[in-house]
Amino acid sequence: xxxxxxxxxxxxxxxxxxxxxxxxxxxxxxxxxxxxxxxxxxxxxxxxxxxxxxxxxxxxxxxxxxxxxxxxxxxxxxxxxxxxxxxxxxxxxxxxxxxxxxxxxxxxxxxxxxxxxxxxxxxxxxxxxxxxxxxxxxxxxxxxxxxxxxxxxxxxxxxxxxxxxxxxxxxxxxxxxxxxxxxxxxxxxxxxxxxxxxxxxxxxxxxxxxxxxxxxxxxxxxxxxxx
Length: 227
Fold this sequence. Notes:
By secondary structure, the chain is mainly alpha-helical. The protein has helices at residues 5-26, 32-48, 55-62, 66-72, 76-101, 105-123, 126-134, 142-164, 170-187, 195-214. Residues 31-91 form the HTH tetR-type domain. It comes from Alcanivorax jadensis T9.
């Protein structure tokens, strides 16, 4: 499946935004060539998978020389790790924004769950590849996954406690994040995307979180619809 120009533009906007933040934090400048390699490599990994992708495939897609490629990356895994780090950092930016704008614990649950699924869907098929790779403890992606879960669970623990007055074990929210992660893989099961699965997973995830954290659940969230 080919990405449309609007899809590429959306990906480019995300990549450039996060790389600008990285450059400021590291005291450097964002490289446009590096950005283009990352942007076009997403489609290659999504179509071919990690094992069937070679550096030459990435060179062809991004239209850069081998010399330019190795100026910024060691190998194809280094590219995938950079893409995943961008995904994680942008996800956390959206996550913090939703938590900050929420006016209740229920808002936090609903808004962060929605932004989690929306962002995963916006990344397309490559998200399944990266998530499966990141779950391996020996993968270069694994530390970024752990870091994201640490940050997100700490934010949820402190902010939801602020509204409910309860002191939660952080593992409660890490468990919820594991659940969301598994749901995201389920949405892209069999190599495709299912809007029906997305709607169901979002509804059930919110229902479980409300029941677990608030002790109550909005009617209809966990019941099977009557046909």
